[in-house]
User: Fold TetR/AcrR family transcriptional regulator from Rhizobium laguerreae.
Amino acid sequence: MSNVNETPARSRGRPRAFEREAALAQATRLFWIKGFEATSIADLTEAMGIGSPSLYAAFVSKEALYAEALRHYRDNNEALVWAGFFSAGTAREAVMSLLMDSAAALTGCVADIPRGCMVTLSSVGSEGHVELGELVRTARAITLDRLKARLNQAISAGEIPASTDVHALSRFVQTVQNGMSILARDGATRGELEAVAELALLGWDTRTGAAEHRRG
Assistant:
């Protein structure tokens, strides 16, 4: 991410043209809804309440602003989906929390946020912006890494069989969550996505023997 001047530009001696984080929040929301390519500088300045000179002075470029927006998105929305995952007692509970909390967050039921996941829905890499595309791919990979780490922990704890295909099962959960994001953008309800999560857990049980373990 580019180094950015942390002091916003001042306009003709007035105290401060804008609050940087507030402006960044508005830019993040716009990028989240429209995507990188479809969002123009004019769109951004209108949403942020600043002129283009102030935008460039504070954020350097549209690309650097998008990179900061990804950071802002992560810092302010990650806990909505991941807090329950990290606090869960078992791997199954962690996955259930991840998917159920995703159903709520992705449909805007827990906060005033756009539908879907900004990272999952981003197509910036295929739009010719290689460095930004790599940032997005790295952000997407975090989900897989966290799931694999939790499953390996579960194997060590004897929660799931050592023969479990950790990579495939993690990809399965990640794919379900990504699909939920797309469906949420298309208008799927929280209840519909929660039903998807419940069905996904049946797949989890089949692959890990969790149902038999709970009956025992």
